[in-house]
Specification:
The protein has seven helices and seven strands. The chain has two domains: about 100 residues, no CATH class; about 50 residues, no CATH class. The radius of gyration is 21 Å and the shape is elongated.
Amino acid sequence: MSPSEHLCPRRAESAINFPGPDRWEIRHRLVHQSQVGMSCSHCGSLHPDRFMELVREGWTVGPTDKNYKAYLHEPVTDEHRAQRKAAWEASDFGRFIRKHVLDECGTEAEAQAKVDECWRRDEEPHLSGDRSAKFYYQHLSVEQRHEFIELHNSKAMVIGYPGRFYVPPFFCGSAQANKESVDG
């Protein structure tokens, strides 16, 4: 096989198993993923080397309800954050909050404080950059899995809302589960 060829580790899970080899190529399965890097021709996953590079650079690993998959999101810039906040404030919801405070005899400063509070609590945690990519953890090598765990444990990894994995990657175990298996 050439360097761009591989056998996708997700093939064993697929009912459709057309002949390999698979290739790393520019794909358009996710909007803007082709701007992020090469994807597996079988499953559409971002290349694992690129995934780890972007995790190290501070891209956000978006947790999912699946232990085999994540979405990687470009960091949000201050400019992007300001644009999104301005658009949200001008939306029906932002205007409703402001009007409600003012209708209750609040001041403009109190109305802005309430709008800011709602933005920080309800909207800002869900922001992501314009570019994103899908990634299947099965593509990580053993070394990359260890590095991923180290980045997570050292808090060097940015994890999207709610700021933790609610379903950890299949190759990760909780400290409690590991302790129980040792004490078992």
